[in-house]
């Protein structure tokens, strides 16, 4: 959240490459604990504007490297001329046969997941939803010849994002190519009281599920109180993007340093 704090202080467009470390998931062809992120922010814009800017960036990278807006990745053609656009609700209905009224109702969603064979005993919505998402949704994204932008996530999975008027979803998107998540974006939440409540609620959920608790960043909340402008930010995995443009299927093939 240091970058959002800088947005408050500078009120301008920002671009940061940074090294990240996350060992909460096992090493795999898609993940190593140490990786590089490219993070940038646009003031005065929202997540849908950022989606158009990211697509333009992908197209320009493709044109510089290969002379056109189409690449070959693992034997499949990928065009950067447009997005496949799906809301989270549309994706769950299309691929998991879970209707919107089931997706956004905790009891109905958990019952539906249980009927599909997922472990639900003692689990919350926040526990079960990622299981269904990983097993039934992710693998389909970005597989139709275009990258997929998946937007409007449940508010439970968008702690830093501005809520939509429906009260159920927030202005967050992720984009995918061939089932590989490449970036995460949201319209920045600008209400400090709501943000602090989300932080507290999120930490309670982490405590309940036995995860490491994260103390509330009150410095960030204080910065928000000074006035966070309307803005949007995205973080893109550099190595994962490199996988796509170098046509490799393992992140270790392009990392200079790997941790086993």
TrEMBL record:
InterPro entries: Aa-tRNA-synt_II (IPR004364), aa-tRNA-synth_II (IPR006195), aa-tRNA-synth_II/BPL/LPL (IPR045864). Residues 21-247 form the Aminoacyl-transfer RNA synthetases class-II family profile domain. Gene3D superfamilies: Bira Bifunctional Protein, Domain 2 (3.30.930.10). One of its GO terms (cellular component) is cytosol. The keyword Nucleotide-binding applies. GO terms for molecular function: ATP binding; lysine-tRNA ligase activity; tRNA binding. PROSITE patterns: AA_TRNA_LIGASE_II. GO terms for biological process: lysyl-tRNA aminoacylation. It holds the Pfam family tRNA-synt_2. Keywords: ATP-binding, Ligase, Nucleotide-binding. PANTHER family: ELONGATION FACTOR P--(R)-BETA-LYSINE LIGASE (PTHR42918:SF6), LYSYL-TRNA SYNTHETASE (PTHR42918). This is Aminoacyl-transfer RNA synthetases class-II family profile domain-containing protein.
């Amino acid at each position: 959240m240091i970058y959002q704090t800088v947005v408050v202080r500078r009120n301008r467009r920002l671009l940061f490459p940074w090294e990240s470390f996350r060992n909460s998931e096992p090493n795999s062809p898609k993940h190593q604990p140490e990786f590089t992120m490219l993070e940038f922010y646009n003031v005065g814009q929202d997540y849908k504007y950022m989606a158009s800017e990211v697509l333009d960036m992908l197209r320009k990278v493709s044109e510089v490297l290969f002379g056109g807006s189409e690449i070959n990745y693992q034997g499949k053609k990928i065009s950067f001329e447009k997005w496949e656009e799906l809301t989270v609700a549309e994706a769950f209905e299309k691929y998991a046969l879970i209707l919107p009224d089931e997706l956004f109702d905790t009891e109905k969603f958990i019952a539906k997941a249980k009927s599909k064979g997922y472990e639900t005993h003692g689990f919350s919505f926040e526990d079960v939803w990622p299981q269904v998402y990983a097993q039934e949704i992710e693998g389909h994204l970005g597989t139709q010849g275009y990258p997929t932008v998946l937007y409007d996530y449940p508010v439970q999975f968008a702690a830093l994002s501005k809520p939509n008027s429906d009260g159920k979803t927030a202005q967050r998107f992720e984009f995918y190519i061939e089932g590989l998540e490449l970036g995460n974006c949201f319209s920045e939440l600008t209400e400090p009281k709501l943000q602090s409540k989300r932080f507290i609620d999120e930490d309670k959920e982490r405590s309940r599920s036995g995860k490491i608790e994260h103390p509330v960043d009150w410095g960030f909340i204080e910065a928000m109180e000074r006035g966070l402008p309307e803005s949007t930010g995205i973080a893109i995995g550099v190595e994962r993007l490199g996988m796509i443009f170098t046509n490799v299927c393992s992140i270790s093939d392009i990392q200079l340093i790997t941790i086993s």
